[in-house]
Amino acid sequence: MGGADGRLPHLGARLDEYGEGPAVRALEERCAGLLGKPAALFFHKGVVAQQAALLAHGERTGRTTVALHPKSHIALDEEDAIERLTPLRLRRTGPDHRPFNAAELAAVREPLAAVSVELPLRRAAFQGNGWEELGAISGWCRERAVPLHLDGARLWEVQPWLGRPLADIAGLADTVYVSFYKGLGGLGGCVLAGPVDLIEATRAWRTRFGGNLYTAFPLVVTALDGIERHLPRMGAYHEHAKALAVALAGVDGLRVNPGVPHGNSFQLLWDAPADRLETVLRRLAGDEGIWLAGRVGATPVPGWSSTEVSVGDATLAWDLRDVADLCARVLQAARTA
């Protein structure tokens, strides 16, 4: 990270205190500009940022039901936080294997406080809604005065696939959340962007959820660094992910999902049991110092397992053929373990 001397360029800024300071202000203004929104607010966690956004939308609409995908992070990975801690209730729509579309959203008949779209949808192999489909969902929401929220945890990463400026993508929604510790490589944190009055309304929820940190300086300066260093490279990461997917699809016993990645990440399916694959991967990490994949998941197909592939600077340093050969070796070892 950082410049030629290894230092982060914003380290000399005064520390922020309780969300106020030059570095955090610079980060919020930078993100608001990139996303084409009037205001942005730093949060330490996306879980808190998105609950705050949806609560603010619910307060304005006087409704409590939020439509979202059943495999979205809010619905699947937060221990039911939003329904345990707030009056909001979730209306899951769409199939497990892909994002929902406008027609499936239109089948929801109950009054909605908001619609949340995770873009891309990690648990469905990092697939995103295409530009036309996003426009249709946005149009449906606006015709009915239903706020649209974008869960953009990986919005930076999917922008090259959509082929539109970040501000155009964010402009389809009323609010958008973006993360700093995934493709941007920051230590953590995120911002929520949207209209000034709504973003101001989320400040109180940030405090209520314990998110008004005494200082977030390490998170803020690494986020600023990530925007400068990694955001301009998202196109290169996407192109490499597409080329890597082609190389891996050529290995017998491997499948890539989706066939053409929508961002810098995709799902890799292995014709080997999850427990055996995990054992081989951990042995590879310990013996050779190569971290090929993290979580290994079972699939509905008996004997097959899945991992995630994410392309960043470290991946760019690997030859595509070498990665394919390594995966073939790991697969063979897992099959015979």
Could you characterize the architecture of this molecule?
GO terms for molecular function: L-allo-threonine aldolase activity. Belongs to the threonine aldolase family. The relative contact order is 0.14. This protein folds into two domains: 22-229, Type I PLP-dependent aspartate aminotransferase-like (Major domain) (Aspartate Aminotransferase, domain 2, 3-Layer(aba) Sandwich); 233-336, Aspartate Aminotransferase, domain 1. It starts with 21 loop residues before the first helix and ends with a helix. It has a seven-stranded mixed β-sheet, sandwiched between helices. Helix 2 (46-61) crosses helix 9. The chain is globular. The model has no long low-confidence stretch (mean pLDDT 96). It is of the alpha/beta class. The longest helix is centred in the C-terminal third of the chain and has 17 residues, at 320-336. Helix content is 44%, strand content 15%. The protein contains 14 helices and eleven strands.
Briefly summarize what is shown.
The protein is an alpha/beta fold and 337 residues long. Helix content is 44%, strand content 15%.
How would you spell out the order of helices and strands?
A: HEHEHHEHEHEHHEEHHHEEHEEHH
Could you estimate the helical fraction of the residues in percent?
A: 40-55%
End-to-end gap: 39 Å
- How many discrete domains? 2
Strand content: 15-25%
- In quaternary terms, these chains amount to single chain
- Tell me about the biggest sheet? 7 strands, mixed
Principal-axis shape: globular
Quick one: how many beta strands?
A: 11
Q: How large, in whole angstroms, is the Cα Rg?
A: 21 Å
CATH-assigned homologous superfamily of the largest domain:
Type I PLP-dependent aspartate aminotransferase-like (Major domain)
CATH architecture of the largest domain: 3-Layer(aba) Sandwich
Tell me the name of the CATH class of the largest domain: Alpha Beta
What are the segments in which pLDDT stays under 50 over at least 5 consecutive residues?
none
Q: How do the strands of the widest beta sheet line up side by side?
A: 1-7-6-5-4-2-3
Category by helix and strand content? alpha/beta
Protein name: Threonine aldolase
GO molecular function: L-allo-threonine aldolase activity
InterPro entries: ArAA_b-elim_lyase/Thr_aldolase, PyrdxlP-dep_Trfase, PyrdxlP-dep_Trfase_major, PyrdxlP-dep_Trfase_small
Cofactor: pyridoxal 5'-phosphate
